[in-house]
Amino acid sequence: MKETPINCVKCRHFYVTWDNRFPNGCRAYGFKSAGRPAIMVKKSSGMACLKYEKKPMKI
């Protein structure tokens, strides 16, 4: 069974930083990275991101 990749841009914890070296941030895990945070979580823990929460829809 194949996992569907997590799209950090659609997560409520994702944010764009001002740091050119680490432009992607995750508020849930409290870190910044050069790549998407979900990929870094998968590489370091071997598990998919457990903190993913879909952003609420804007009206």
List the helices and strands and how they pair.
Blueprint: E1 14-16, E2 24-26, E3 31-33, H1 37-45
Organism: Metabacillus halosaccharovorans
Protein name: Uracil-DNA glycosylase
Structural notes for this entry:
Helix content is 15%, strand content 15%. It is an alpha+beta fold. A three-stranded antiparallel beta sheet has the order 1-2-3, with no helix packed on it. The chain is globular, with a radius of gyration of 12 Å.
Summarize the structure.
With 59 residues, the chain is an alpha+beta fold. It is 15% helix and 15% strand. A three-stranded antiparallel β-sheet has the order 1-2-3, with no helix packed on it.
Strand content: 15-25%
The secondary-structure element order is EEEH
Terminal-residue CA separation: 36 Å
The radius of gyration over CA amounts to: 12 Å
Mean pLDDT: 91
From the helix content, strand content and strand pairing, which structural class follows?
Answer: alpha+beta
Features:
about 60 residues, alpha+beta, three-stranded antiparallel β-sheet, 1 helix, about 15% helix, about 15% strand, globular
